[in-house]
Amino acid sequence: AQRVTQPEKLLSVFKGAPVELKCNYSYSGSPELFWYVQYSRQRLQLLLRHISRESIKGFTADLNKGETSFHLKKPFAQEEDSAMYYCALRDPGYGNKLVFGAGTILRVKS
Amino acid sequence: KAGVTQTPRYLIKTRGQQVTLSCSPISGHRSVSWYQQTPGQGLQFLFEYFSETQRNKGNFPGRFSGRQFSNSRSEMNVSTLELGDSALYLCGSSLAGGTDTQYFGPGTRLTVL
Q1: Which residue of A has its CA nearest to B107?
Q2: Are A100 and A2 in contact (CB under 8 A)?
Q3: B53-78 pLDDT per residue, tens
């Protein structure tokens, strides 16, 4: 069964510190991996996806098939990065069904 | 281009009642997915509709149903409401499938008393 695990419910860092939000998945195949972000009082929005390999707002994520991980990283955290982050997986053979992790709250302190 | 809209934004119902939620996807998008978001279970997939046909279904009881109209607007219905159905229901919209990005609406907050 497909599963996405985000081991940290809350990650608290100081402004300017590096950030790494962990995501591991279980899936026997070639999934698509995404990071979604939900800022306070805003809708869920796509942050990045592994197939585009782009950097959004300074965040990057690399798909490691050997470790079945898709960790989200940013070298220098900013206060406006404070939000809930969800890692999600899509099986290309199942339309648009997304399997989400439990989410990690990122708090960036000044 | 207008984003995904969901109506109503808030609903209060009592146990045993039924409820219908509506989602209007982005213009041109043909795929609509529904998710339930709760503090305990997180975001869980309910079902997906594409071109008026249910393409995928999550592990929810038959009390949860949906449909999609020819203009791609979608409704989901929950019958015989239970307290545990209290949640934020999110609608996701995408062009078709494959590598399309899924855009989400603001959600409908359902409270069951």
Answers
A1: A43
A2: no
A3: 999 899 999 999 999 999 999 999 99
